[in-house]
Q: What sequence folds into this?
């Protein structure tokens, strides 16, 4: 599979639907611009209705954009029907052809391309080997498990050597354990094939584990584009912070600026935040703090009241209140630590380096 | 071309649509076909009935509406329609209720129900009229020989109503059975649990839930009854309905404009009923019965409920089945009313007088029409369900409209529309009086049923199956022939056989369009019955039933062994 890799570019792409109730236009996808590098694995992530699937279907050609243009490897593809685009999609429902066996399913795209019979045979058995279904050519699709059907769908898309592989929530019909196995498989196969992949999911842990880059969407807008680490550690807004993992939002006020550092008053404690030079004095600041980076103890920055305390195995889970704000704390390895009870007063501390100021 | 106010997506969709030449040509041809053979013949009727000697006039309508004969026919149609659909719906409901709610302990009863459900599929329309006459007519086996009544008169309103009820109630039964099965049993159990009696549950829960469904069955039967030509023709006697009046206006009075005006009246009636059924009742049915029965329903086992219902249904079934069997005896008795010794003379005689040719002609034309209709309706269904384009609505409406058009109206429309060519200009005149126009009539008459079954089959198929084929590089025809058609081949096959059956048993439009060059079975039966030679008529009908039954049995066998069901089961 040594084919030229192609990138995908979206320029201000919008899709407008008419709301069936109000009869008014609404933007399912709103001026989205993306630049997906050749050979990379990019995930469109977001809650349902955020426009991620519509974006994917516009790239595949099933939907036409109302604004903007889509490019594949530098070539504008807006007017091409899906059959003429160099993309192949793996569908949520796998969409295997029920009247064909595995061989005919996988060979379908090659037959359309009039590939010689012998070559089809060889390629099908190669690709089935790659996805771990060697020798199962003559099985019918309804004799396969969900995971196996998924592998056939992947093989069928891969075999036509598309410039871009598209995945529309491919794992959502599998059980949790299989999902983890399959996502690793998909990543392994994509790496091996060196193909550009665009992956749609609403599952943030799937997105984090599989992607080179995540594009987080909400209400048709792109919220943030970045590597999983960037998105987790430096979320651009509260939505991103909250959607990717749990987050605590500390509400503070900027007291003064010292070089690149800001001194922020958080619930009465003045805390030095590094690397945020552009904050205005006296302005409000929201600090994102992950539950696993939040510590509870007999001393700390500010006092809190414990409202929930549960043993979760790997950690002790606390919900604590400060000034009507709820904070979540994951206290790992709780075995030899002091356990606070509901109603107790405790203190919260954290390493300012593990926070992010919005 | 500039589309100034068009959305970019609409423009792109249009560009994409026009980049698929096969799709464009198919859609264009379909539109031409439907406009030419569905819309145009109806439009020309309207034109004909409003223009006389080149000037617009309402004179023709005034003349027709003033005809006492026409007024009688109109009210006759309404009266027969109301009675037939009321009885059909009620009997259909009883059968459906027994089927779904009552535990039938005997295999024989289950078999009877199965046969009743099959009857409307395999029955030529006038068979029941024939046997009605043989049993209860002036020389009827029952009336004259059992009851010794010498002036029995089965002709007229009640003859029509009885025959139409027997013809249409199985359709109501099948429709209502589907609805009842979809009622969640817990609704009724909840009412039972709160202390309601069975009757009360039926009246306050079950009945309100299926009320729109009953309305649906009633209206569909009403349309069928108003459009029915064969039965009023055979058993109506002096009781003329709109369908028979139109026929007589053309063949008897040679008043083609008058017939056109009458046809417009009948068409308006059926279309209004069709619109109410389609857009009002169907939406209500969907609104009340959305859920699927979650689990099985505990059947009613109390003897005081089951026994009377079972007896009633068996009596009706046996009676209806006996009517069909009677046709066979009618063909075997030497002379109905006089000599009941068995003979094969009638079969011999029909084959001496052109019977073989009639069967050959009818079969040939039906066999030609069947695959064309089946393919056309699957293509229409595919376009309607899976494709996005502007003219889609037009195609859907025109192919469904044919459902509401009575055969007689279509026949008159074809006479007016094609006997002097398109708009009386001589263009396409060549097809008039040929087998081509008969085949086209067969196609148009069967297209709605085929399309309907295709649409419902396609709606059950996950759209991403086709999308993935497109995505892998298949163009529209490739997708249709390698993916869509194989997945709906059951529906395709049933469209094939249904068209064959409907065509070989068709009479209403055919009787107006057939020329002596073509000898059709149904026309033979009709003219023999009109002359009172029931023996040969029954012989024809018997062979026809055998052919039709064989076709349906063959289809069932094929679907069972090569059908799609095995793809979708684990």
A:
């Amino acid at each position: 599979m040594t084919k030229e890799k192609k990138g995908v570019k979206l320029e201000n792409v919008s899709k407008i639907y008419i709301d069936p109730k109000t009869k008014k236009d609404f933007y399912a996808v709103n001026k989205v611009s993306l630049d997906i590098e050749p050979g990379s694995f990019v995930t469109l992530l977001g809650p349902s209705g955020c426009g991620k699937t519509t974006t994917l279907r516009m790239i595949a050609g099933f939907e036409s954009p109302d604004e903007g243009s889509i490019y594949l490897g530098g070539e504008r593809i807006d007017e091409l029907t899906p059959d003429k685009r160099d993309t192949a999609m793996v569908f949520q429902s796998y969409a295997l052809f029920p009247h064909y066996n595995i061989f005919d399913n996988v060979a379908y795209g090659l037959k359309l391309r009039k590939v010689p019979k012998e070559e089809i045979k060889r390629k099908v058995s190669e690709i089935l080997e790659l996805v771990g279904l060697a020798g199962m050519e003559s099985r019918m699709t309804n004799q396969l498990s969900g995971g196996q059907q998924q592998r056939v769908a992947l093989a069928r898309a891969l075999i036509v050597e598309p410039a871009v592989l598209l995945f529309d929530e491919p794992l959502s019909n599998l059980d949790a354990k299989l999902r983890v196995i399959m996502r690793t498989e998909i990543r392994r196969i994509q790496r091996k094939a060196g193909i550009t992949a665009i992956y749609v999911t609403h599952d943030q842990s799937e997105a984090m584990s599989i992607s080179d880059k995540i594009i987080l969407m909400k209400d048709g807008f792109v919220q943030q584009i970045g590597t999983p680490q960037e998105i987790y550690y430096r979320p651009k807004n509260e939505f991103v912070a909250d959607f990717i993992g749990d987050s605590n939002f500390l509400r503070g006020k900027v007291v003064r600026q010292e070089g690149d550092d800001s001194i922020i008053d958080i619930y009465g404690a003045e805390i030095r935040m590094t690397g945020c030079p552009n904050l205005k004095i006296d302005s409000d600041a929201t600090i994102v703090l992950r539950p696993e980076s939040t510590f509870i103890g007999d001393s700390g920055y500010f006092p809190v009241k414990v409202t929930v305390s549960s043993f979760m195995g790997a950690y002790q889970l606390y919900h604590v209140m400060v000034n009507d704000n709820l904070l979540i704390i994951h206290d790992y390895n709780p075995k030899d630590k002091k356990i606070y009870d509901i109603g107790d007063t405790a203190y919260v501390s954290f390493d300012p380096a593990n926070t992010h100021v919005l | 071309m500039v589309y100034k106010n068009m959305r970019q997506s609409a423009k792109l969709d249009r560009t994409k649509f026009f980049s698929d030449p096969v799709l464009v040509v198919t859609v264009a041809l379909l539109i031409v076909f439907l406009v030419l053979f569905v819309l145009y013949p109806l439009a020309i009727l309207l034109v004909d009935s409003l223009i006389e000697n080149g000037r617009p006039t309402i004179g023709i309508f005034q003349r027709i509406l003033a005809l006492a004969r026409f007024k009688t026919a109109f009210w006759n149609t309404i009266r027969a329609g109301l009675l037939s659909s009321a009885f059909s719906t009620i009997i259909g409901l009883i059968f459906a209720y027994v089927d779904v709610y009552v535990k039938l302990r005997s295999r024989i009863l289950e078999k009877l129900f199965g046969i009743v459900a099959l009857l409307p599929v395999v029955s030529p329309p006038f068979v029941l009229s024939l046997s009605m006459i043989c049993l209860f007519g002036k020389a009827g086996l029952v009336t004259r020989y059992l009851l010794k009544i010498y002036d029995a008169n089965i002709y007229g309103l009640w003859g029509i109503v009885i025959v139409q009820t027997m013809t249409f109630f199985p359709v109501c039964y099948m429709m209502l059975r589907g609805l009842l099965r979809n009622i969640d049993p817990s609704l009724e159990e909840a009412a039972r649990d709160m202390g309601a009696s069975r009757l009360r549950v039926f009246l306050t829960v079950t009945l309100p839930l299926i009320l729109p469904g009953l309305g649906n069955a009633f209206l569909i039967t009403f349309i069928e009854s108003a459009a029915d030509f064969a039965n009023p023709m055979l058993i109506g006697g002096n009781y003329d309905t709109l369908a028979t009046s139109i026929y007589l206006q053309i063949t008897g009075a040679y008043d083609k404009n008058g017939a056109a005006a009458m046809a417009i009246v009948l068409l308006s009636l059926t279309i209004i009923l069709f619109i109410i059924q389609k857009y009002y009742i169907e939406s209500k049915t969907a609104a009340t019965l959305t859920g699927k029965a979650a689990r099985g329903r505990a059947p009613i086992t109390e003897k005081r409920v089951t026994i009377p219902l079972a007896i009633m249904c068996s009596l009706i079934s046996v009676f209806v089945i006996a009517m069909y069997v009677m046709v066979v005896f009618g063909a075997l008795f030497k002379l109905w009313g006089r000599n009941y010794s068995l003979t094969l003379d009638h079969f011999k005689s029909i084959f001496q007088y052109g019977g073989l040719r009639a069967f050959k002609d009818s079969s040939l034309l039906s066999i030609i029409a069947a695959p064309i209709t089946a393919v056309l309706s699957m293509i229409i269904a595919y376009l309607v369900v899976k494709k996005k384009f502007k003219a889609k609505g037009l195609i859907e409406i025109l192919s469904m409209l044919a459902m509401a058009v009575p055969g007689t109206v279509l026949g008159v429309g074809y006479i007016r529309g094609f006997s002097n060519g398109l708009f009386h200009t001589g263009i396409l005149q060549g097809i008039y009086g040929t087998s081509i126009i008969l085949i086209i009539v067969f196609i148009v008459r069967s297209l709605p049923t085929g399309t309907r079954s295709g649409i419902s089959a396609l709606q059950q198929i996950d759209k991403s199956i086709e999308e993935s084929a497109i995505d892998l590089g298949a163009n529209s025809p490739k997708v249709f022939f390698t993916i869509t058609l194989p997945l709906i081949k059951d529906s395709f096959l049933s469209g094939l056989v249904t068209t064959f059956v409907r065509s070989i048993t068709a009479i209403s439009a055919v009787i107006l369009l057939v020329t002596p060059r073509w000898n059709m079975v149904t026309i033979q039966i009709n003219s023999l019955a009109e002359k009172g030679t029931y023996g040969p008529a029954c012989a024809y009908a018997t062979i026809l039933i055998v052919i039709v039954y064989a076709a349906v049995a063959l289809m069932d066998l094929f679907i069972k062994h090569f059908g799609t069901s095995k793809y979708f089961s684990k």
User: Anything to note?
Assistant: Chain A has eight helices and 20 strands. Helices of chain A lie at 52-60, 102-112, 117-130, 146-158, 176-193, 204-210, 228-233, 238-243. Chain A has a mean pLDDT of 90.
